[in-house]
Amino acid sequence: MKHVLFTAIAAATMATGASAQEISLARFFGACEDAGTDTTVTTGEACIIQSIINAADAELDGITITTLPTDWGNYYDQLKAAYAGGTPPDIHVMHRHRVPEFAGLGALREISGDLEAAGIDPADWSPAALDAVSYEGGIYGVPMDVHANLWHVNMEIMEAAGLVEDGRPILPTSPEELLEHAQMVREATGQDYLAADFAQFPLGVRLVLALIWQQGSNVFDEDGTATIDTEEARNAIAAVTQLFDAGLANPQLNYADSQQAFLNGEAAILVNGTWVVDLYTAEAEQEGTGLNSYYVADFPTIFETGATWADSHIWAIPASLEGEEYQAALRVLAFINDHNIDWARTGHIAIRESVITSDAYASLPHRSEYAGTAELAQDMPSSDRYGAIQDVLNRELQAIWLTGKPVADALADAEIDVQDLLDR
Amino acid sequence: MNRSYYWLVLGLSIPAFLWLVPTIWMVSLSFQPNEVLARSTSTTAFGLIPLPFTADNYAALFAFGQTPWWFLNSLIVALGMTFGVLAVSTTAGYVLARMEFPFKRTITVICLIGLMVPEQAVFIPLYTMFADLGWHNSYRALILPRMAVPIGVFLMLQFFRAIPKDIEEAARLDGVGWLKIFWYVMLPLARPAMMTLAILTFLYAWNDYLWPLVSAQQQEYFTITLGLASIQSNFAQSEGLGRVMASGVIASLPVVILFLIFQRYVVQAMTVGGSKG
Amino acid sequence: MRDRSRSRMSQTQAAAILLAPFLITYTLFLIYPFFRGVWISLHDWNLLAVAFNPDATEFVGFRNYERVMWGRNIEWGLFAAPFWQITGLIGLALSVILRRVDRLSRFNAIALGLASLLLVFLPGFHPGEGGRWYDRRFWPTVGNTLVFVGLAVPGVTISALVLAAAMNRETRAMGALRTLFFLSQVLSVTVVTLIWQIMFSPRQGLIANITETFGGTPINWLTDQQFAMAAIVIATIWWSLGIAMILFLAGLQDISQDIYEAAALDNARGVRAFWYVTLPNLKRTITLVVILQIILHFQVFGQSHLMTQGGPNDTTQVLVRYIYQTGFRDSELGRASAMAVFLFVIMGTFSVIQFIVGREKS
Question: For the complex shown, is ipTM > 0.85?
């Protein structure tokens, strides 16, 4: 901590003489207007990140930060529009999967040479995190987390269905068991077994992807050949669809509704990311909610090898940023890097080894319950069409689940469309 | 007034009430605590009556919110666009309706052909154009492209054509110049048509979503439409339903009040514009 | 003589001064962008790549159009889409027969004939053996937009007309009622979607709450493919009824009271008067409202973008949203511009029809 402080002072002295640097920062995660500057007490992605930003604004001398408002749905569209219009934000958050697209065009600044001076130690980053910001040998950002799909469990329902052993939920190890468990839950409690957003954002896609990876397959390979119309994909989809067909899960719930169903105690399992662990923990502590006993489990291995969808949030600086503004931007990134433990409070996996091995990290609520997730983390091969490919998969899976399109047709169509995107 | 009239009023008030229900609901939700709404939105009378009651959502909005700022931007953009459209449309409409000059027919036709070009068909080239100029994230980027809409010229042209010529000619005989005639004689006469055009433009500007979405990425230039869109797609992560609804109410209240004050004028103006159009 | 020519000169000058502001903005912000759009549509033009390297465009001719609208092995068959094509054939026959027996004006006969011909012709295209559309989403998106227009326009027009006819009296109560119906028109599109998104929610929504009280199962309006389009149409009608209603009221006030009195002598009151007197006299206003609505709703974006994100399974994906996505999500400005030109052609057609209709009547 001391040397961090020292670097901060050193950096501040270096910047003396200059007037306050205005840093504009773009992020998603949602709005939190009254986050305050105490980074240790906030809850939820939006408020935790905003409190870190507010703290940076208050504590870093000579730097004021304006947070640009952007929503999830339009974030990358607007970011692109800002870059193309020549007015990119000085710092912005992005996903690991977007790095090839932005760095490939020369939009992002390569920062590997300036990290040490700014007080960021890349050697402290976990291999996965370093990988997330690397592109063709360079470093194009500062990682903030690894986030992955988890199974959020309502232990009361599981208990009633006899699916708890030694205080841990019994999770399925095969598609057959998945159906069996779902029926047990239905018989014992009348509730759904599993809920997730199958109708709006690509959370259903991530679930199916994990099941495909668990069979050692993927949706396209590094050479740019789509491999979607496969036995593995059919198995993965069948494993989920059997629940819908048996009426044990509802494919029509969107993100907000599936979450509400879980919090109301209407579903035993919610498949959602690491980003909601602290929110659900807080919800479970409150009186009068449908979720009283909350457990977080690693995504179970339903086929051969364990795998769950994962990605990373990283912070990047545009290539056009120069001089003192660039230095100021780096200082903000260093500040965020220093508060990795606060960000990990959301439920995300920290990226600094020094944080991961700390007691404070280990003692975060439910952390030990999903300690295996870091090992399971996986994602589609990198592509500068990632977003569009994910949309194709989302559309075709929705077609199967919501409009009864035959699986064979949907997979064939998806393969053609993804191949088109890869060939462009 | 006979009995059937009262039945008619009664019969109409039922759909009118239904029409109002979504708005009432929004207002009512904005006065309920977020913790309550997280569990149920129909506590009292399907949530149409705000019990339990709280004004916290509004307090928070004014303490931290960006809504007032977005609102101000919308007002600047909408007013700027309204005055701009009025200025270019009345002049052009008058010239095309009443004056004689070379190539008049050609110019008129060219102007009216523009009616066929929808804004959505040109927003991409406009975007690249403003990007090349480095004009994005400014009021001029939000206002200028919409001043070129020929519908205003069309409306004003129709209107000026209908004004009898003798008023103008009397002034001409007295040796008054064209610009003076336009300013002192024609403009006062055109007030109702200008009101129609102003209202249509203002509503249009207030509601525009696509162009601000691609042009403004910085919060200084967010309009209320854009700001609210950014809040609502974060439903799952936002500060709560009550807050979001309160933003919606704050965003709408001033326009609604404006409308209620000017409504007689609005309807009259539309009537004029409608039967002329 | 001299005096006159001098005043003519100054007239031209004055005209130039007064016309200049409009002509300049018009050329800069409409004419020039339009041609620039056509120009972009002939290029492979990546939004981001061009921003960092202005020369990163490649002239590809009409390939963007082909990639968007055409496919491999596209064939034409008379019975590819039997329902629409047979409807078209019937329409074609009707227009000929009705013209023969003189029940249809020449203009209307040609309009009906042309529309029917398009109906026979366009749906006939389909991919043959081993063929496929290059862009599988484009035509369904156009179809969705047409469905939206086809539901929203009659919805708005009919409800606005009925309400206007019922409220065509200058009394305080009627004035208040009109205000109520017009009120939602002043809300911005994002407030409208904000309200209706939550209205339609199967868990928190007012509609669901009421359904549940009466023992029904709530509908997943926005995520069920049968209801998603209906949902955004309902929100749209609620939102945009006001202006149509006011235009109808204006039209109604132009109908002289004498006609109604004469009709009343023939025992035509209430619904009969509406059918035999009001409707025929409102023809022009109705046409105006319908065409304005078509032009307006063809450009729908916000409702689909914010309420359903085009889903589920693309059933509410509309043209402008597809243009926006292609341009700003996929960075393919060339393709997006090709679609925009297509949009222009369709809208242009309706504008021409409006122009002709306006001309013929006056």
Answer: yes
